[in-house]
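ESCALATION

Customer reports they have been waiting on this structure for their group meeting. Please prioritize. Original submission:
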Amino acid sequence: MGQRYFIELSFRGTEYCGWQIQPNARSVQQTIEEAMALLLKEKIRLTGAGRTDTGVHASYFAAHFESPSLKPGNTAETVRKLNHMLPGDIAISDIFPVNEKAHSRFSARSRTYKYYISIRKNPFRQDTSYHLYPPPDIDAMNLAATELIRHSDFSSFCRSNSNVKTHICKIISASWKEHNGMVIFEIKADRFLRNMVRAIVGTMLELGRGRINVAHFRDIILAQDRQKAGTSAPAQGLFLTGIEYPEEIFEFRTGPHAAGRKPV
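Update from on-call: job pushed to the front of the queue and completed.
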């Protein structure tokens, strides 16, 4: 099997079917695995921190893999060569050795997502935000965000027919803010369900447009029924921005990132 490594990266998901390999569409995982196989002259299988939907982006993402040929002292050069080989919408920031039990998905303590809404026309954010006019009511949506923290079963915001054992999630924080022509939703939790953030955002926007109130939003959560919630917000506004891991994951990290932490 060889040494286990973590690989940290970012990607713009516009041209991909998401992170995970799919039979009939290009994925971020496939693109990186092919480049690594060519560079390392061995088959590489990446295990990602999770799935992302088509068109969703990540300013921070992590995966792990094993390699018998890659040596810990050569990771910086491998990062440089990979970035030269990969398309411009995928960037590798670091590769570092970890112990054999470190897992990019199951070792994660929390994940953070941000959803970006452009409230004025911005040609440079066409593929990386949802354009919405007029602006929604941020104060009302923040009341709904506070409501999220009081609950744990988010069946109403899970994609129908998802194969999950539980719909229980612990929301650590959730809030809306306006900054520089953008309305931004940030949410942190111990885990997320399929399509959960986009479903939450889409439902909150119903409140932000005055179509429902906070009491109705609470009832949607308690119903535990996806049909009661709003339409999912478009994929292009969603970014995975941080994954929190235990400190011991980074004990063998060296180089310029050694003193740094993953974004959260």
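Sent to customer with the following note: The chain has a mean pLDDT of 94.
Escalation resolved.
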